[in-house]
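Pasting as-is:
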Amino acid sequence: MYTASTAFLEALQEAGVSVIFGNFGSDHPALLEAIAEARAHGRTIPQVITAPFEMVGLHAAHGYAAVSGKAQAVVVHVDSGTLTLGGAIHNASKGRAPVLIFAGLPPFTQEGELKGSRNEFIMWLQDVADQRGIVRNYVKYEAELRTGTNIKQMVLRALQFAQSDPKGPVYLTGAREVMEEKTKPVKVSPTTFAPLKPVALGEDAIGDILGDLMAARRPLIVTSYVGRQPEAVAQLVRLAHRLGIGVFESCPSAMNFPQDDELYQGVQWNEPVQNPSLADADAILVLDSDVPWIAAHNKPSAKAVIRHVDVDPLKTDIPLWYLPTVAAYTADSLTALRQLNEALEHRKVDAAKVKARRAHWAGRHAERAARLQAAEATPKGGITVPYLMARLREQIGPDAICLNEAVTNFPAVCNHLVRTRPGTFLTSGAGSLGWSGGAAIGAKLAAPDRDVIAVSGDGSYMFGVPASVQWMARQYGAPYLHVVLNNRGWNAPRFSALAVHPDGYAAKANTLDIAFDPPPDYAGIAAAAGGAHAARITRPENIDSVIAEALRVVREEKRAAVLDVWLP
């Protein structure tokens, strides 16, 4: 029997969706039947991964999409499951994660008029006025499936939105009666709903950008997530080396440029200091960044010529946003970098000027490297994050996929893991905590042969519903290493309060109600929920051996591992 739900699964399969992260409810009998029917007949459909908590499921889909480059699907239960997606929908939106979310609707008949009609009390209570309105601020497209006759076209259209720049989540709903509807198979051309082709720079834009960069004494590229397209990293390296351009990362959510390259000028998040490379630059190309700097305490020179390239340079979902640019361009960064590099083949480059620029940036890079190396010295007291990350770096190798959700330790984790290969560093790209555990599951499922390492604060770890995460890791063979930086509380609210009120009452208070000390047994939670290897580290002396054993368990025993690292 071919139903609307059969067509739904067929559309996902044809669109290249690999996984459905599902949390099913009373609105999904037709979908569950269609899944069972497909398996009974040996028909290929996406793998179904049970997500005991909806937010974890969406974060897993986010992580899978980030590593694979392909949209994934999440199924949740009416308004309740939609609400339980929580901050994950914010992360998928701001992090530009292509994910299709499907939520059922309560039946719209109540006397058995149609198959799927109301037969449980809860179906009256789940009937809300505007379920799609819950997520409208966060999705690129939302619609209700109203008939089985065009359900495949509706699903493929939603995925076309999700995978066209700027990418992001989409949301579909469908009532039980609709999903039960018998229908006829529909053939759709693969090109009809293909993602839109990347936008290129115009010829004038290429000339203007190259003209500024070639004429400048201190040209600088600022980026946050050009590396979401791994192929773009090589193009960025090529451009920077050919012209002697420094590269600076602001709040990076991807590996954008090799951190050991002499042109790399470091990374900055919220640190209230002026970055010297940004201050010195006289020509700046902002490439794929939502927050290239925080002007209250770190900004370019007023004389700098600034140009901006992004698939969404207007930042249409951010009410207050602007840069002091001379021009901004809507373009795909990979396409734009290829264009700039190709155009350089037909231009004469001043070799002496390039050499001088490279020498300047290399000197700055060496100074920074020396500071970082000094910070990695073996601590005489408690564990420091630079030392911990340096020891972790030595054992995981350059191909490990590292997820950073360390919040107040974002810079230290990024600086001392030193990622050098595309696709080896990710953050959510947004602000809702609890992303790293679920995202690590998705990343491991997308890249089962690679090490996946998540580093988070203890607050972020708890936000991530670790019991659900660790159950999924064991159930679906997705072992990863989670390093919890345990400072017994939320430091981010403390830093925010003191930044605004450095001499206020909060600075003098004994408590700000943001501590959890003594803390939960973070590693023990993982062991109980998913049979994970659990270890606590309180002193620096045994860090190497503990990390080595955790990685051995992940690689050989195929079990997740959680290291509860106590910071001073």
